[in-house]
Specification:
- The protein has three helices and four strands, in the order E-E-H-E-H-E-H.
- The chain has 131 residues and is of the alpha+beta class.
- The chain has a single domain, classed as Chitinase A, domain 3.
- It has a four-stranded antiparallel β-sheet with strand order 2-1-4-3.
- The longest helix is centred in the last third of the chain and has 14 residues.
- The relative contact order is 0.26.
């Protein structure tokens, strides 16, 4: 009899390399702040203060999972922790960002990737300096 057990894909957890596709908008129905989805990759769980709220929302997600997030612009740095999005131009009166996130891939980070990620965190602290 053939083995019918199906291996589940990697799930997001600390020290996994995560690749996301993201779009950002002014409302849940208008993803108008990014012209197209952007690729966002990072090693999960490298921040010096533990998992950021953003990383916490991704725990146990797997490739293909999608989520929507609402972030107060004023709390964006706290929400992202040591991570930072690419530069996005925000309208002057914008108070809240809406994100649509898709998990593209999750896999074990190599030792080199972990060391590079830790070096970036050490360089910037949890100040999200744009790496």
């Amino acid at each position: 009899m053939a083995n019918t057990m199906i291996e589940s894909p990697d799930r997001i957890e600390p020290l996994k390399k995560v690749v996301l596709s993201m779009v950002v908008g002014t409302t849940p129905g208008h993803m108008d702040l990014t012209p197209q989805p952007f690729r966002f990759e990072f090693i999960h769980g490298l921040g010096t203060t533990g998992l950021s709220p953003f990383e916490q929302m991704l725990v146990d997600k797997k490739p293909g999972d999608k989520l929507s997030m609402r972030i107060s612009l004023e709390e964006q740095r706290q929400f992202l922790g040591h991570l930072s999005f690419p530069p996005i131009l925000f309208p002057a009166d914008l108070k809240v960002l809406h994100l649509n996130v898709r998990v593209d891939s999750v896999h074990d980070a190599t030792g080199r990737e972990v060391v590079q990620g830790l070096a970036q965190v050490a360089e910037c602290g949890d100040g999200c300096c744009g790496h």
